[in-house]
Amino acid sequence: MAISPGPAEAAHVDAWLTDMDGVLVHEEQAIPGAAEFIDTLRRLDLRFQVLTNNSIYTPRDLRARLLGSGIDVPEECIFTSALATASFLREQRPGGTAYVIGEAGLTTALYEAGYTLGSREPDYVVLGETRTYSFEAITRAIRLIEGGARFIATNPDVSGPSTEGTLPATGSVAALITAATGRQPYYVGKPNPLMMRTALNRIDAHSEHTVMVGDRMDTDVISGLEAGLRTVLVLTGSTSAAAVETFPYRPTRVADSIADVVEVVEERRRSD
């Protein structure tokens, strides 16, 4: 499927948001056109953020991983669900406390947001992604929530890919905790448009002049739509061309891959 236009795009574009997995990379492998897309944004001096619901890694970690795949993304241009969660909690309850199930990407973000981490009457239980979910940690989280801690999760993704097959992710563990406590978490990451708005604020961009590129209709496209952005769906990830028509909403454009979006960036720049 060649890139297909959607509704008229009158307003100029001066900023881009893009998902990472399924758009720029598969596991550790760059998707053809990804490096060129980032290089084009930088060459044209366009503001951008690479977004990911993965809360395991810090932006510095992710920059190194992307660079190993041949994609040069500055650290400050990477925005994770962990950073979005830390920003949200800092605004909601400055200097608060949290019991965290997660890895360095999440704990570092919360520390830098001024949070104290521990299990003594915390304001929040914050659940992120990890490769080492433990029964003891989940049990403690359940008891803290029963004791009055507010329940936050970085993202609702129920599974993730690995070279060995599907892995349980944050949403699956959140469902377990909800079943035990009757308490639903507040999910900060995609498809919550809050993550999009926070990313826009980081680069001082306006939704009317920003495009979101993603590979999932149920997270990337809908969160971009609800945040007021134009959207491009690429077909190199989770959503197939056939599946697009099953959703009650549409992306602004559909493209085979990020390589086609490079042409769109150039085209939009010339028209602006």
TrEMBL record:
Transmembrane segments: none annotated. Mg(2+) binds at D19, D21, D215. Its cofactor is Mg(2+). One of its GO terms (cellular component) is cytoplasm. GO terms for molecular function: metal ion binding; phosphatase activity. Keywords: Carbohydrate metabolism, Hydrolase, Magnesium, Metal-binding. The active site is at D19, D21. Divalent metal ions. Mg(2+) is the most effective. The keyword Magnesium applies. Substrate binds at K190. InterPro entries: HAD-like_sf (IPR036412), HAD-SF_hydro_IIA (IPR006357), HAD_sf (IPR023214). It comes from the Bacteria. The keyword Zinc-finger does not apply. Belongs to the HAD-like hydrolase superfamily. This is HAD family hydrolase.
